[in-house]
Amino acid sequence: MRPTFDELVARASALADRRRLLGVCGPPGAGKSTLAARLVDALDGRAALVGMDGFHLAQRVLDRLGTADRKGAPDTFDADGYVDLLARMRARTDKIVYAPLFDRALEEPIACAVPVPDDVPLVVTEGNYLLLWPRARALLDEVWYVDPGEDVRRERLARRHVDHGRTPEQAWERTLGSDERNAELIAGTAALADLLITP
Ligand SMILES: Nc1ncnc2c1ncn2[C@@H]1O[C@H](COP(=O)(O)OP(=O)(O)OP(=O)(O)O)[C@@H](O)[C@H]1O
Ligand SMILES: [Mg+2]
After folding, report:
1. Domains in the chain and their CATH numbers?
2. Which atom of ligand 1 is nearest to the CA of 146?
3. Most buried of the four, 4, 29, 58, 123, by CB within 10 Å?
4. What is the distance, to the nearest Å, from the Cα of residue 9 to the centroid of all Cα atoms in its chain?
5. What does the pLDDT profile of the chain (199 residues) look like in tens digits?
6. 34, 49, 55, 56: which to mutate for ligand 1, most atoms within 8 A of CB?
7. Ligand 2 center to residue 53 CA distance, Å?
C-alpha cells in the first residue's frame, strides 16, 4: 500500500480512542523512527513515542558477553524488559510509566528518559523486532511495516552511519554486514504486519 502521511495520521488517530499500542516495524534504516516521530507530533499530545531501541543492552554488558560486534541483533536487546514495559503501558494505571531511550551519540540506553502519562491514549512504539518477538506482537493493537525498498533503505542507513561519525567505508561495511543480516531476519516477519507502507 502507498498510504499518504495524512491517511496514516487518520488511521492512528482513529486508534487513539482509549489506551492502545501502535507498532512501527521494519528493517534498519527503513525510516521507522522518522515516521513514528512525525505521527506522534501530528497527534499533538494524544500520543507518546517509546522506542524498542531503549532496550539495547549497555555497551559494558555486550563487551562482557562478546556480542558487541553484533550490536543491533535480536540477542543484543533486553526483549523481556521491552515486553514487560508494553504490558505495563497496556494495563494503564494512574501512574506515569517511564520508558528508556537509546542515545545515538552515546550509543547507550538511558533509563527512565521518556515519561508516558496515563492520560495519553496512544503509545507509538517502533523498532526492528516487534514482529519477531511473539509476546511483543501480541501486546500491540496494530503493527505497520515500513519498506522503502532495499536500495533506498541501504543508502539512508549508510548515510546515517556517516552522519554519526563513521567513514563511508565503515558505514557500508556495517550496512552490508551485520545490519544486512538483521534486515533479512526482519523482512521474514513482514507478513505478520497489519499494514505494509511502501513509498
Ligand atoms: N521519508 C524519508 N525520506 C528521506 N529520508 C528519510 C525518510 N525517512 C527517514 N529518512 C532518513 O533515513 C535515515 C534512516 O531513517 P530512520 O533513522 O528513521 O530509520 P530507522 O528505521 O529508525 O532505522 P534504525 O532501524 O537503524 O533505527 C535517517 O537519516 C532519516 O533522516
Ligand atoms: Mg530508528
Report:
1. 5-197 (3.40.50.300)
2. 21
3. 123
4. 18
5. 799 999 999 999 999 999 999 999 999 999 999 999 999 999 999 999 999 999 999 999 999 999 999 999 999 999 999 999 999 999 978 899 999 999 988 999 999 999 999 999 999 999 999 999 999 999 999 999 999 999 999 999 999 999 999 999 999 999 999 999 999 999 999 999 999 999 7
6. 34
7. 7
Please tell me the residue having the least CA distance from ligand 1 atom 9: 31
39 touches 47 (CB < 8 A): yes
36 CA: nearest ligand 1 atom: 18
User: From ligand 1's centre to the CA of 96, what distance in Å?
Assistant: 29
**CB 198 within 8 Å of CB 2:** yes
The residue type of 100 is P
Q: What is the DSSP-derived secondary structure letter of residue 151?
A: H
